[in-house]
UniProtKB/TrEMBL annotation:
This is Phage protein Gp37/Gp68. InterPro entries: DUF5131 (IPR011101). It comes from Methyloligella halotolerans. It holds the Pfam family DUF5131. It comes from the Bacteria.
Length: 296
């Protein structure tokens, strides 16, 4: 839990519980599992879960809402479960019921829920979802096309203040275009009609980034350029969160002495080098992409 979060797109983080299970390629180098290992809590990724004692923090932020909104001109955004997954099957129903109750209680806060299990959203939303949905941003991770095809249709079944995709860690190219238009799919990959089946709902926001950490896999810069351009064509806000540890050689300008650990040759003659997340930064072709959606 952190009052001031390091995650670029939220103000604070709150973990109602910790622990999870790896379920996709995006989980291979899960930083939360690494954290659990470092702190001697490996059991949290081997079936156990632990409820935290930080539940009063959101209540405190809710009481401070006037001050926060005066300063920022909008409500505080709280990212929930950075060390877990809200829609995890192994969480006791009572814990999740309490969590939904907390969102209902803290009605001056906006909650961001990012899941790799969007297929569980339907059965795990509370009966009073309509009451709280205008303050919840629901998101799913899509690391490559297969994950997008699997996850986005589940996400788009549900109304929420914002429906978003985290394209991080990017592990392959993704064509999001069919899910970026309000008026049905203009781009029909399979003959005839939209394959998402939820034409009235679209993705409202895409956050993209490369992988970080000691085992980070490189992303091709063209994957990010493509998603940037898909968002621009559809008028969807795009936030480029980070390169991660790798960045393309042409992007590395003069600067401090680099600790170059490795380099890789990618398709099309692109070369990326391991320069470290901090140095790599978050400019894509020299531009900061930092757009946020307007909640519905
Ligand atoms: S879903 Fe998230 S927290 Fe769970 S193992 Fe995967 S990356 Fe880690």
């Amino acid at each position: 839990m952190a009052e001031a979060s390091d995650i670029e797109w939220c103000d604070s983080t709150f973990n109602p519980w910790v622990g999870c299970t790896r379920i996709s390629e995006a989980c291979d180098y899960c930083y939360a599992a690494d954290w659990a290992k470092r702190t001697g809590q490996e059991d949290l990724w081997q079936g156990n879960r632990r409820r935290t004692k930080t539940w009063n923090e959101p209540r405190k932020w809710d009481r401070q809402a006037d001050t926060f909104e005066e300063e920022h001109g909008r409500p505080r955004r709280v990212f929930c479960a950075s060390l877990a997954d809200i829609f995890d099957n192994q969480i006791p129903t009572l814990w999740r019921d309490d969590f939904w109750g907390l969102i209902r209680e803290c009605d001056r806060l906006v909650f961001l829920l990012l899941t790799k299990r969007p297929m569980n959203i339907e059965k795990m939303l509370p009966a009073f979802w309509d009451e709280i949905k205008s303050r919840v941003w629901l998101g799913t991770t899509c690391e490559h096309q297969e994950a997008a095809d699997r996850n986005v249709p589940h996400l788009l079944k549900h109304d929420a203040a914002v429906r978003f995709v985290s394209y991080e860690p990017a592990l392959g190219p993704v064509k999001f275009t069919p899910w970026l238009h309000d008026d049905g799919c203009r781009d029909t990959p399979s003959a005839g009609s939209c394959y998402c089946g939820f034409e009235e709902f679209r993705i409202d926001w895409i956050v993209a980034g490369g992988e970080s950490g000691p085992n980070a896999r490189p992303a091709h810069p063209d994957w990010f350029r493509s998603v940037r351009d898909q968002c621009a064509a559809a008028g969807i806000p795009f936030l480029f969160k980070q390169w991660g540890e790798w960045m393309p050689v042409a992007t590395i300008g003069p600067g401090p002495r680099l600790k170059i650990k490795d380099h890789r040759y990618l398709d099309g003659g692109t070369v990326v080098r391991w320069v470290g997340k901090k140095y790599a930064g978050r400019l894509l072709d020299g531009v900061l992409h930092d757009a946020y959606p307007e909640p519905r």
